[in-house]
Amino acid sequence: MSEELLPGTTPEGGQVATVVEDPLGDPGLPPHEHRPTDVDPRAERRAERQISLLFVLSMLATIAFIAVYVGVPKDRIEYVFPLGDVGLQNLLLGVTLGLALFFIGAGAVHWARTLMADEELVDERHPAAADEETRAATIAAFQVGAKESGMGRRGLLRNTLIGAVALVPLSGVVLLRDLGPLPERKLRSTVWEPGKLIISENTNEPIRPEDIIRGSLVFGKPEGIDGTEEHPNHERLNELAKASILLVRLSPEEIKSRQELEWSHEGIVAFSKICTHVGCPVGLYEQQTHHLLCPCHQSTFDLSDDGRVIFGPASRSLPQLRIQVNSEGYLEAAQDFAEPVGPSFWERG
Ligand code: FES
Q1: Residue nearest to ligand 1 atom 3, measured at CA
Q2: 3-class SS at 147?
Q3: What spans are recorded as compositionally biased (Basic and acidic residues) (predicted)?
Q4: Which of 7-16, 81-90, 96-105, 311-320 bottoms out in mean pLDDT, i.e. has the lowest?
Q5: Domain spanning 198-348: which superfamily?
Q6: What's the CA gap between 19 and 37, in Å, rounded?
Q7: How far is the CA of 128 from the centre of ligand 1 (A)?
Q8: Would you call the peptide bond into 82 cis, given omega within 30 degrees of 0 as the criterion?
């Protein structure tokens, strides 16, 4: 570590010599160690073979990608632990493409670390410190300024100035409140709960299973969500929008998913009415195919198969509401939705 004398000025105008350590002194380099591939031709050939193998594996993964695209049906669903039911083609395309890119990356890194030139180069750095004359002039100017401002003598002024400057950023912190209250779990849950009656949006009456006939689409909402104390008006619209559902009747044999069948009642299934793309109400039902179309961007959901997306920009299924019948014969919720309804806000980071 190099040292040098820095001349300064005392408050009385005299000269003082200050010892300053150069904080950017040259620490030097450790001795260079050669890699095995630099000194051993056999290690070099071995590394070359390993790298080539990685690139060959990438080629095989790309060929597998094409084979999956051509050979695996788009609509084939398989159970894969721990993902559950997934589209087999999408899964395999993702895995093979990921492997192809991974092997190229791994080969490139291996190549760079073992075979590319391993020279240590010195890039001289310019001295970062100002020359002695400039430093002395700066210190002198600072000391004159400090003396003229009276910062040293006027402790009260100095301390209150420090306090004022330290508190100013608090204004910005307080303004963060304008962003509104934290959503907490509001985006992840709705007012549906076990035993909550399903009310028809048309008749405002509770719904019996026999009210839902094949081919018709019935819109429902939870009981007790009409601007009462519990749900004042500004909250009501939000809660109503999140909890809105649609009910259709299928034959139990037409339902392809075991969970959907268990969550239905005699083939009557209830799904969220809010599109999982950007939240439009879905409502165009094709009774022959049991497809439900969102009018905004044409996302299409299969109501006989967990509300799965079969077309369009939506990226996840319509959430299903588990329903049952109470002792008086009316349809009610068996639980809240098992996942958030509406657009997939948590996937946007
Ligand atoms: S909001 Fe439904 S497809 Fe876009």
Answers
A1: 297
A2: helix
A3: 31-43
A4: 7-16
A5: Rieske [2Fe-2S] iron-sulphur domain (2.102.10.10)
A6: 48
A7: 58
A8: yes
pLDDT average, residue stretch 150-179: 87
Query: How would residue 164 be classed by pLDDT, with cut points 50, 70 and 90?
Result: very high
Q: Which two tokens stand for residue 65?
A: 């990608």
CA atoms within 13 A on the CB side of 264: 27
Threshold 0.90, pTM exceeds: no
Give distance in angstroms: CA of 293 to centre of ligand 1. 9
Per-domain residue ranges for the chain?
36-114, 198-348
Give the tens place of pLDDT for each residue, 273-327: 999 999 999 988 998 899 999 999 999 999 999 999 999 999 899 999 999 999 9
342 alpha carbon to ligand 1 midpoint, in Å? 10
Closest ligand 1 atom to the C-alpha of 299?
3
Tell me how far the alpha carbon of residue 142 is from its chain's centroid.
50
Q: Retrieve residue 46's tokens.
A: 């071995």
